[in-house]
Amino acid sequence: MVKPRPNSNGSDGLTVRGSYAAIRELHGRRTDVRYELGSRDLTRAVDHVQWAECDATGRLLVATDDGRLQIRDVVDDSVRWVADESAFEPVPTPPPAEASTW
Question: Domain extents for the chain?
Fold first, then answer.
């Protein structure tokens, strides 16, 4: 799946490749999901990510495979902002009632 990067005049796009791209693990096995950021001249892998997306201004947002949220530079892949969420544990709670109706 390829999504154009906003504010790039259609020249850049974020690609996710692999079977079961929306599922990171299937039956106890990791799937072969890969993210790539491409332009007219270059395509490069977006490494060590669990999820990636471009925001409305074209910034590259990622959730890393070690529990960090980052904003990365689309040109050189440097990290512009980071929040380490790896220490947080999930708190299972029942869904609200409105989640059970369409």
Answer: 2-86
pLDDT in tens, 2-55: 888 998 887 899 988 876 655 656 666 666 788 999 887 788 999 888 889 999
Write the Ramachandran bin of 98: left for phi over 0, alpha for psi from -120 to 50, otherwise beta. alpha
> Given 3-state DSSP classes, what are the helix, strand and coil percentages for the chain, each rounded to the nearest 5?
5, 40, 55
Q: Where are the beta strands (DSSP E) in the chain?
A: 2-4, 13-17, 25-26, 29-30, 34-38, 43-46, 49-54, 60-64, 68-72, 79-84
